[in-house]
Amino acid sequence: MTPIVDMTAVIAKAAELNNNLGEVQKAIKACASTKCRLKKQPGRADYQTLMTACLQEEQLLKNVKSYLAQEPKKTVMHLDADDISAMSYDEIVRAIRSVQSKKTHTKWSDDCERDEDGNFIPGSGPAYKEACRIEQMLIDRKLELKPNAAGFSKASLRELIDTLRVCSDLDVTTCLDRIEAFINGGETE
């Protein structure tokens, strides 16, 4: 479970440090230095108070750092061709699932056109059409990036690793030959 972060304190501290990531990193280092010095003085009367304050300040600074470093992530419905071309295969598969979900939710939305009887025409709304357009771009990109037709399952990779472990007397060339044979659809001996 992630702790609840007081964003007003984070934003105020970021403003105090001029929203400068370099300044935040310097402050984190200074706080870590203070904490290190305090650890060497556990006998101080105010040790617990100072250490608690130092740890809270360090956590606040870390939250400020993540706040300043984060880039707003685009939702699937706002992706363009450049965003899609920069995505990995796994990200594209997840995005396709997400856009298909969006299509399902918008197919019968209120912004759909109606026929002469006043009935909804499913899939005629602008959100649905946009979802279809994005889905097609994602599918096209998925086909460009698709791994080899055989596709490796974890079980088959585990089988290959087990085979190579059993044959510990193999040299590197033989191991590479077996891996290439496996990739090309051949069986390991």
Describe the structure in brief.
With 189 residues, this protein is mainly α. Helices cover 63% and strands 0% of the residues.
Task: Give a verbal description of the structure.
The protein is mainly alpha-helical and 189 residues long. The chain has 3 domains: 7-69; 76-145; 154-183, no CATH class. It is built from 8 helices and no strands. The chain has helices at residues 7-16, 21-39, 47-69, 81-85, 89-106, 126-145, 154-166, 172-183. The longest helix is centred in the first third of the chain and has 23 residues, at 47-69. The radius of gyration is 28 Å and the shape is flat.
**How many separate domains make up the residues?**
3
Q: What would you call the shape?
A: flat
Structural class: mainly alpha
SSE arrangement, N to C? HHHHHHHH
Query: Helicity level, as a percent range?
Result: 55-70%
**Percentage of residues in strands:** under 5%
The residue ranges in which pLDDT falls below 50 over 5 or more consecutive positions are none
Distance between the termini: 47 Å
Largest beta-sheet details: none
**How many helical elements?**
8
Mean pLDDT: 82
Rg: 28 Å
Instruction: Count the beta strands.
Output: 0
